[in-house]
Amino acid sequence: MAEEEVSNKHVILKNYVSGFPKESDMEVKTTALKLKLPDGGDYSGAILVKNLYLSCDPYMRSRMRKLEGHYAEAYTPGSPIVGLGVARVLESNNPKFNKGDLLWGLTRWEEYSVIADPETRFKIHNTDVPLSYYTGILGMPGMTAYAGFFEICSPKKGERVFISAASGAVGQLVGQFAKAFGCYVVGSAGTKEKVDLLKNKFGFDEAFNYKEEQDLNAALKRYFPDGIDIYFENVGGKMLDAVLLNMRVHGRIAVCGLISQYNLEQHEGIHNLFCLITKRIKMEGFLVFDYYHLYPKFLDMVLPQIKEGKIAYVEDIAEGLENAPSALIGLFSGRNVGKQVVVVARE
Amino acid sequence: MAEEEVSNKHVILKNYVSGFPKESDMEVKTTALKLKLPDGGDYSGAILVKNLYLSCDPYMRSRMRKLEGHYAEAYTPGSPIVGLGVARVLESNNPKFNKGDLLWGLTRWEEYSVIADPETRFKIHNTDVPLSYYTGILGMPGMTAYAGFFEICSPKKGERVFISAASGAVGQLVGQFAKAFGCYVVGSAGTKEKVDLLKNKFGFDEAFNYKEEQDLNAALKRYFPDGIDIYFENVGGKMLDAVLLNMRVHGRIAVCGLISQYNLEQHEGIHNLFCLITKRIKMEGFLVFDYYHLYPKFLDMVLPQIKEGKIAYVEDIAEGLENAPSALIGLFSGRNVGKQVVVVARE
């Protein structure tokens, strides 16, 4: 297929976004691509991949605006969205990668991508699980849940754990890791369907719909009459203020995300930080890429749990690159149920 | 002097306080006291002390209102203020204390106090330093600076340290500990006189008057062009928001106090907590009484530094119990220069 020419669909960010992103902030364009890597020069270590599964993640919102001093670069308007995904190597100029290899890591939202610097991608060795899992439970969200819970929160058996956005890609795993570890686990989510999933599928002790609560402080007191030891923070805003009032002495807060704030021009103010002192709370933000050295250890824990059916995992699958913009923006209204994945191609 | 009767002046909290405390929230009353401990019963382990030096500390503001779930109990309106101080034992029903012993720890704002449960007070063994130092550098504020800086911030040589309310009882010590440890140290304070003290007496590398800065973010960028590794937080509010924007990756914030907020009915909102994630910051509140087991180790470090003149320490001395209310409320307008002490008696 050396000179085979194919059409290559891309999802392009048209302009920087303010407020809630809309489907019309992105457009799908088609170009022609020769399925052949140029030799040498800029392409000396490059690979050509076919993208199979793309991951929709909340952090992507932050790359849709101009950024200053952020850990991730802003997207380039007029260029494809960049995100995590699962891909198959079609051609390689890089001795570390071979045709046919399966990878997960950064790619672009298009059918075929040339990746000039593939070194930070992970090779997929275990293929007896759905490949899409490498966008979630076996990829960045899985590692995020693992590092955030075990490394940041230093849990002890019997501790009381609260997780917001608990049915999301990360939250559902934190809750299950915490239950398996011997903690009491409560999650919040934004629909009845998600609350049912938390209780009936993911085995949380309790769950509630934060949209139905007039008073988050009272809701937390109902589920945590003795207070919260560990809060896995995915949302920020009013929930964080209510949680601070309900933390126990020497509690820990892992700050993983603040999805309720990502589309606001100015973030809501947090008023209850005095609780950090009175209850001697540790609150720590983290980014998963500081913990990727633990990935093999994580796989050793989680792969058997998946194969033995001890861990439940729910994906929300959008079919086709055309539906990727809608899938991505659905994250911010909480439309997805479980991990939001886009299927570009199944093999 | 078994049945000697003396007059005993007390500083009484009249009522719970809202907003800034005023002198008129307190009153000085005199009663008569027999200088004799009753035997047995409630007094079986009690001691009678003469109070020498009283400590004015920012945390005391929080005890002037009704509290729920706080680490300290509210004061009782109609009763004397409770606080830390240095006292001499006049009589003892407790085998661990003898007449003439010098102590520091909780006492009441009055000339003479009966202490029913003296066990948590520290005996003073080193008397070749001013006794008032046990309200500050050798007491709770000194231990607070030590524990907050070394235990919470885990400093490394060469790191960039910022301290707010830096000329206060705790801040001046944190800065000097940090300098001696090999850090770059900048402090903020609210008058030219305090800024001069920081630079000329306490040896800070730089200091600035936050009241003269239109833009705290710009001020911090001026002194920390490469960002802040460690923030020792004494004030909260707008300063915290500006610091968050200027923290370095893997920075640490020790939350010791939030004095700018203590007189507000609702605390100001903090808007920049997303920096906790992007910069992987650990922010931890602490209370000194979790660290008192380190007190002997702390004395071993700090006593030689004091005796060799390697550490500077500034006190603001108010003479007489009548002046205690004014000294206490002066803390909240920043009137004191250095550690605010009230002398009740010199021996």
From TrEMBL, chains A, B:
<dbReference type="InterPro" id="IPR041694">
    <property type="entry name" value="ADH_N_2"/>
</dbReference>
<keyword id="KW-0560">Oxidoreductase</keyword>
<dbReference type="InterPro" id="IPR011032">
    <property type="entry name" value="GroES-like_sf"/>
</dbReference>
<dbReference type="InterPro" id="IPR020843">
    <property type="entry name" value="ER"/>
</dbReference>
<dbReference type="Pfam" id="PF16884">
    <property type="entry name" value="ADH_N_2"/>
</dbReference>
<dbReference type="InterPro" id="IPR045010">
    <property type="entry name" value="MDR_fam"/>
</dbReference>
<dbReference type="Pfam" id="PF00107">
    <property type="entry name" value="ADH_zinc_N"/>
</dbReference>
<protein>
    <submittedName>
        <fullName>2-alkenal reductase (NADP(+)-dependent)-like</fullName>
    </submittedName>
</protein>
<dbReference type="InterPro" id="IPR036291">
    <property type="entry name" value="NAD(P)-bd_dom_sf"/>
</dbReference>
<dbReference type="GO" id="GO:0032440">
    <property type="term" value="F:2-alkenal reductase [NAD(P)H] activity"/>
</dbReference>
<dbReference type="InterPro" id="IPR013149">
    <property type="entry name" value="ADH-like_C"/>
</dbReference>
<feature type="domain" description="Enoyl reductase (ER)">
    <location>
        <begin position="47"/>
        <end position="342"/>
    </location>
</feature>
